[in-house]
Amino acid sequence: MNGVNFQVARGEIKIILSGSGGGKSTILKLILGLLKPDAGQIFIDGEEITECDVQDGYNLAWKIALVLQDKAAVTLLETYNEERLENAKHLLKTTDRLFEFAAGTEWLLEFLRTSVLPPIAKYIFGLNPVKKVVFPLLSQIGINYRHSSLSKHTGDEHFKVKAGDRMPYFMIDGASIYDKLHEPKFHLLSFSDGQDDPQFFKAELDNRYARLCDFNAIPLSPEAAEAFGKDEPFSVLLRPDNYIGFISTNTSMNGLIVDLRKFVGNSKS
Predict the structure, then answer these.
(1) Whole-model pTM?
(2) Which structural domain range is residue 119 located in?
């Protein structure tokens, strides 16, 4: 596509017409951050999104999708910058330190960089504590939204992970927990000892929020208990980008529906 240039004001509806292969779907994918343009710029609420990284793009995409489908209020889009800017500041601070070490001209930094680090780098980066710090930083899974207005902290005080953190990785029944989280929607997970009836929970949720949220009953295995730091039944609401919206020890169906309503607001799903 060449020479595409248009603006859409808040509340305005714009129709794009073209023949098959004319670029309609491509334009939408570019706006949602699913594709990156070879040239040009895209602005949403005054912020350029063409340089978004993968997580930024996904964060923006699910929010735009919910608003366009009339499943959430347009104010949801305001949380994109709120969440993005805090992590951008943290990333800049980290990269500035790394650049200072890599390019600094002070004799001590140069000595450490050229004489001390090379022989021991392989050993240092092979240590598990170092891996736990470096890998999340480079892969961006260390990003969190704990201070976001979308993260509801009531109830997460005694958990190892908090609202706003990425869903922790662990194995369940020989497979990754993420194998259950592929659908681009909210995920309500109930970790229990098997005394509740998961089919009743699923039927109730499907009846009210089928297009917006799915339900998974997860056994409270030692792996799950270790990941969350909790060995009593609890529930987790995951956002479509698999970040935690809230954690609750309330496992009753009515209680979970109330918590879900508070999170998604005036959904018309």
Answers:
(1) 0.68
(2) 79-139
